[in-house]
Amino acid sequence: MSPQNFSSALGAIRHAGSVFGVLLTRGHEVIYQDTTIPDSRVAELVSILDDIGYYFEQEKRNPDQLSFGYDGGNLLLQLRGDLRMVVFHHQADEVDDVAKASAAFLKDYGMNTLVESWVCSKAALA
C-alpha cells in the first residue's frame, strides 16, 4: 500500500461523520496518528490498548471491536491480531458506520501486508 493510498484511506475514515481522531498501532508501535492528543498521552493509550488485547487473550476471548463512551465522545477500538485501530467520534449512533469503514480499512491493510510479504519471500527465493 503506497503511503498516499494509506493516508488517503485513513483520511477518509477521519472525515466520516463526527470522527475527530484516528490512531493505528501494531503492538506498542504507532503506525498512524491523526489526533489532537499529545504524544505522551498517545503512548499511554497505546499501552492501555495493548493491556486490553492481552486481557482478552488471557480470558480466551477474541473480540474484533469494542466501543466505549466517555465524557467528550466515543471511542471505537478495532482489534485485528496485533493491529489496533482507535477511532474517536462524537455521535454514539454512528458507531456501526464507523466500525464498517475502519474494519474495511484493516482488512485491506492486512491483505496488502500479506501480499507484500509473499512477494518479498518469492523475490528472496529467486
Key features of this structure:
single chain; 126 residues; alpha+beta; Beta-Lactamase; 5-stranded antiparallel β-sheet; 3 helices; 5 strands; 28% strand
Structure, explained:
By secondary structure, this protein is of the alpha+beta class. It has a single domain, classed as Dynein light chain 2a, cytoplasmic (Beta-Lactamase). Helices cover 50% and strands 28% of the residues. It contains three helices and five strands. The chain has helices at 3-14, 39-58, 95-125; strands spanning 19-26, 29-34, 65-70, 73-80, 83-89. A five-stranded antiparallel β-sheet has the order 2-1-5-4-3, sandwiched between helices. A hairpin with a 2-residue loop joins strand 4 and strand 5 (83-89). The longest helix is centred in the C-terminal third of the chain and has 31 residues, at 95-125. 20% of the residues are buried. The model has no long low-confidence stretch (mean pLDDT 84).
| Corresponding CATH architecture | 2-Layer Sandwich
Proportion of residues in helical segments: 40-55%
| Number of E-type strands | 5
Spatial strand order of the main sheet: 2-1-5-4-3
Describe the structure in brief.
This protein is α+β, with helices and mostly antiparallel strands. The protein has helices at residues 3-14, 39-58, 95-125; strands spanning 19-26, 29-34, 65-70, 73-80, 83-89. It is 50% helix and 28% strand.
